[in-house]
């Protein structure tokens, strides 16, 4: 389960940021994170891991909000951009362009793993 390892990394980054700004860990209230669909992270598992890791690190009031960024591809042929959605039946994406038929997609979104904000109480 790689979410636990990621959670530990996030907590390390948050802790470093708090230390840099000289903010006590207990004042941390919320951390917002964006995770791309391509990262194959289960948001609930990541959230669970973050809660455990944050409590262990002394961040007792922290909440974690995880936003998923959609997979976005741009056609290498005509430049058409779209958000890919997995079909309802769970079939794989068709990567060929619906407009020009080129099968040369470039991934432009969905690989994000970013800490968007760190909120602290006054
Ligand atoms: Zn195209």
Features of the shown structure:
2 helices; 31% strand; 122 residues; hypothetical protein PF0899 fold; alpha+beta
**Low-pLDDT residue intervals, each spanning 5 or more residues:** none
Largest sheet: 3 strands, mixed
The general outline is elongated
Number of helices: 2
Ligands, ions, cofactors: zinc ion
How many β-strands, per DSSP? Answer: 6
H-E order: HEHEEEEE
Q: How are strands sequenced across the largest beta sheet?
A: 2-1-6
How would you state the average pLDDT, rounded? 89
The CATH class of one domain is identified as Alpha Beta
Look at the helices and sheets and give the structural class.
alpha+beta
Q: Classify the helix fraction into a percent range.
A: 25-40%
